[in-house]
Amino acid sequence: MFQAREVLWNTISEDYKNGNKKHDAWMEIASEFNLDKKVIEKKIRSLVGQFNRECKSKSGAIADESSKWFAFKKLMFLKGKISQVQLSMEGCR
Predict the structure, then answer these.
(1) Which SMART domains does this UniProt record tie to the protein (predicted)?
(2) Predicted TM-score of the model (pTM)
(3) 66 close to 58: Cβ distance less than 8 angstroms
(4) Using an 8 Å Cβ cutoff, are 8 and 85 in contact?
């Protein structure tokens, strides 16, 4: 669901800086899980932070295959992207 809402993570998206669209995207995800928006944001930020740490601990092409963390492959769409939600993706280049 996060990947489908590029407004939340894709810095080249036309709507990336649109706060209303970001809010709506977070609310859609939150309502799907029947949770508060802040809870969803915190969880996704945590997952993205762990993804960053996994990327930094790996190098090059090996990173794509070597992580055993459950969400690593699911979050590979973030590789190389930098945004507020992702914090820093320096290790995933």
Answers:
(1) MADF
(2) 0.73
(3) yes
(4) yes
Report the C-alpha gap between 43 and 20 in whole angstroms: 20
d(CA 89, CA 56): 8
Closest CA to 6 of 72, 52, 17: 17
pLDDT in tens, 7-53: 999 888 889 999 999 999 999 999 999 999 999 999 999 998 898 88
Instruction: Indicate the DSSP class of residue 24.
Output: H
List of residues 6+ apart from 28 with CB closer than 8 A:
1, 5
Residues 27 and 72: their CA atoms lie apart, in Å, by 24
Per-residue model confidence as pLDDT tens digits over 49-71? 898 888 877 665 554 566 888 98
**3-state DSSP call for residue 22?**
helix
